[in-house]
Amino acid sequence: MKKLKKMVNAHRNKGNKKMLKHGSYSISMTALMIAIVVILNLVIQEIPSKYREFDLSSQKLYTIGEQTEKILKNLKKDVNLYYIAQDGTESNDIEKLLEKYEEGSKHIKVEKKDPAVYPKFASQYTSEQLSNNSIIVECGEKNKVVDYQDMYETTVNYQTYSQQVTGFDGEGQLTSAINYVVSEDMPVLYTLTGHDELSMSESMKETIQKSNIEIRDLNLLTEEAVPEDTECLFIFSPKTDIAEDEAKKIISYLENGGKAIILSDYTEIEMPNFNSVLENYGVQPENGIILEGDQDHYIAQNQYYLLPNIESHEINSNLSSKSKYVLTALSPGIKSLENVRDTIKIDSILTTSDSAYQKTDLENMETTEKEDGDLEGPFPLAVSITEDLGDDKKTQIVYFASSAIFNDQMNATVSGANYELLSSSLSWLCGTEEDNSISIPSKAYDMTTLMIPASDVSFWSIFVTAVVPVGILLVGFGIWLKRRKQ
Questions:
Q1: 399-441: per-residue pLDDT in tens?
Q2: Cys bridge to 427: 301, 330, 431, 478, which one at CB 3.0-4.6 A?
Q3: Quick one: CA dihedral 367, 368, 370, 371, positive or negative?
Q4: Considering just the CA atoms, what is the radius of gyration of the chain in Å?
């Protein structure tokens, strides 16, 4: 009996030792795996976010664009980005954005400043009360505040009467601020006044100012000439004619290598002085309104709401690469004159289809259908004009035949593409290799507006209301007939 107990105890001890050995091995392996996971996680965190994170959002909310990458790559000055945010209230969007900027250049340094710890820090740069999650951009003695409220676009939801965030403009605002603090001078855009010109909307002003362009008014009746610091002259569809002396001043400015954006609208008022500026550069507006005969080139059954072709041009590079639409309305065509100086080059930016036609007698117009006597397309709706003057001087003009293209509602209909065209036009006119003019649109949180040409509307209307129901009826009839035969 004693011998049997010894054998049982020996077997039990041997089993315990074996279990202890296996248990120790399991614990060791578990500890090793945990250690590997921890170390791997630490290593991954040190890898730049562009290699370990993937932006799957349709609007690329967490990815910086080519313009920002170019500016960061070409930075030669140290720039500090002070992130003003209380602990625990940081914006995930802004933190990710700042990380991208810091990884994009060795000259960018991001430093968080908690206002609870540093209550007087922001007062060194601004006297205004900053919102939480704002950013102060500093380079040497220049600085610019990017307020949190400016980085988010909001609209009023009239069903709930509450503010609704619709877009994130962090990259546009931050890159603009960096470009501002590293630039020596800001270009000035002078807008002509005194002839009942259209006023810029706030959205239009913000688009221009985001490109770090200062806007000033110009009255040529009181000025002896266009100011010397004019980077670009803006003429926004005057309703009355300019004076002959004003026209001479504008032409003199342009003939000395000036830059200009000029817009006009159809009018029955004679404007010989205004037209003389355009005619000096080989163009003039046609007398009438264009209607489109091609359903792919207008919207909402309105033949004068035009979806023009976006022609191959440096100004259009971003728009054409993204397959966007531009919308304009009530536009005359642009006529190129025959007797033009050989040094002048005129290129189309926007054009109608070949099926477009122009009504010239609007008072007696009884139909929108094409009639005998209507001018036949295609028509340029916007052109660029360049004249090389030698000695590194070059005149540049962008001319739009309708001001509707820079209307807020028109711009919203095509998800901001019209103002992208404005920004790229300014970049072409004001941009140099040194100042890196930028035009970065905000990124929408909501779905992009779907533009459907009239031809597609007709097709899908017929398909949904006729083809689909008839198809369902035929299938149903076939099934009924098959069952009846059985």
A1: 999 999 999 999 988 888 999 999 999 989 987 544 445 667 7
A2: 431
A3: positive
A4: 32
